[in-house]
Amino acid sequence: MKNIDVCLSPDLLHLHKLNNSIVVVTDIFRATSCMVTGFAYGVSSIIPVASVEECKKLQDMGYVAAAERDAQKVEGFDLDNSPFSYMDERLVGSKIAMTTTNGTLSISKAKPDAVKVVVGAFLNLGAIISYLQNQPYDVLVLCAGWKGRPNLEDTLFAGAVVEALKDEYFVSEDSAIMAMRVYNEAKSNMGAYLSNSSHIRRLQGLGIHKDINYCLQKDLYDIVPVLRGNELVLA
């Protein structure tokens, strides 16, 4: 039987064996929600990079460049970290280079050892679950967290995936059990459940209420971004 597990922070990734695992990277507020939205609105590909410097080099090569640090746009780049910025028709067919505080770093850490890396958000939750059901590998949901610390919104997404797949995968580790239990407590009203979470407070301080509400919507898009080489493309 295949296994499903949850890594609550990229700083804990070294504790997991990835050589037979699909890694589902999630950064609900807001990197993976941006990626899913971008593809849904016609972006051709996204290159996720860990550093601002790497992103700037790609911008200089002609890529549309998105850079975020501490939940705010880095000066000199084209896009911020709001999913609404990716709904621009001018981005249709474009190749985007992206760096974020947590999400793209998580992808970079998973890439060397995982069988596959895919991008998950509540926005494409059902598509991710369907995709995983048709794969022969173990699953690890990697929560991007916040600067090495676990966060609640990514853990809720991980729990939603585990809950959906618990009858088809062996749930062996406490992190997966914890995530599933937290999700089941929160699923009827995730916004209220998250109202006092650290990243909600951080984003509310920036006045980004609409981003929060948008990112908690389930199954808006039936797409799965998957990493091929250095680029995310649609599966």
Please give the structural blueprint.
Elements: E1 3-7, E2 21-26, H1 31-40, E3 45-48, H2 52-60, E4 64-69, E5 72-73, E6 95-99, H3 103-110, E7 116-120, H4 125-133, E8 138-143, H5 152-165, E9 170-171, H6 174-186, H7 190-193, H8 198-204, H9 209-215, E10 225-228, E11 231-234
Parallel strand pairs: 1-8, 1-9, 2-7, 2-8, 3-6, 4-6
Antiparallel strand pairs: 4-5, 10-11
Helix pairs in contact: 4-5, 5-6
EC number: 3.1.3.71
InterPro entries: ComB-like, ComB-like_sf
Enzyme class: hydrolase
Structure description:
Keywords: Hydrolase, Magnesium. This protein has 235 residues and is of the alpha/beta class. It has one domain (3-234): putative 2-phosphosulfolactate phosphatase. The protein is 34% helix and 21% strand. The chain has helices at residues 31-40, 52-60, 103-110, 125-133, 152-165, 174-186, 190-193, 198-204, 209-215; strands at 3-7, 21-26, 45-48, 64-69, 72-73, 95-99, 116-120, 138-143, 170-171, 225-228, 231-234. A five-stranded parallel sheet has the order 7-2-8-1-9, with helices on both faces. Strands 3-6-4-5 form a four-stranded mixed sheet. Strand 10 (225-228) and strand 11 (231-234) form a beta hairpin. Helix 4 crosses helix 5 (152-165) and helix 5 packs across helix 6. The longest helix has 14 residues, at 152-165. The mean pLDDT is 95.
